[in-house]
Amino acid sequence: MVILDIATTVCAGLLIGVEFSVSAFINPILWQLDERAQSRTIGLFARKLGFVMPFWYSATLLLLVAETVLRLHQAGAWLLGTASAIWIVVIVLTLLFLVPINNRMTRLEGSRFAEEARREHRKWDSMHRARVAALAIALVCLLGGVRG
């Protein structure tokens, strides 16, 4: 069970770290670029992270569910269940709201990066911050649950 605890914690922790860095470091720098550079960079990030993240989110969810099932009759099981539930809600809301915006951002080109696209990116960024906060809460629940 220790190996599962480590794998789950590392998988969730690294994912949240990447998501946090997008919110705290990458996007603030992107806002300082000229429209053409901003458009190109957002497209590159959106394509790369848009490809990797679905697998990473899914793998983390599977690890969280495994933790929950294996600890079902232990004291921290409710925290693991809460972490899993938060993760599921985050995935569903991401698919409904953030992925469509991300997909539009991958298709933008410098000349098409109008104020509307900047507005959409700001909207994505705002929702992303809420997602990062929810994931941080899920990580705290995970850590509390595995500690028991």
Question: Any overview of this molecule?
Answer:
The model has no long low-confidence stretch (mean pLDDT 92). It is elongated, with a radius of gyration of 17 Å. The chain contains four helices and no strands. By secondary structure, it is mostly helical. 86% of the residues lie in helices and 0% in strands.
Note the main attributes of this structure.
elongated; 148 residues; 4 helices; mainly alpha
Secondary structure topology:
Elements: H1 2-30, H2 35-70, H3 77-106, H4 115-147
Helix pairs in contact: 1-2, 1-4, 2-3, 3-4
Residue-averaged pLDDT, rounded? 92
The radius of gyration over CA amounts to: 17 Å
Largest sheet: none
Shape: elongated
How much of the sequence lies in strands comes to: under 5%
The percent range for helix content is over 70%
Order of helices and strands: HHHH
Structural class: mainly alpha
Helical run tally: 4
Number of distinct beta strands: 0
Question: What distance lies between the first and last C-alpha atoms, to the nearest angstrom?
Answer: 13 Å
State the low-pLDDT regions, or none.
none
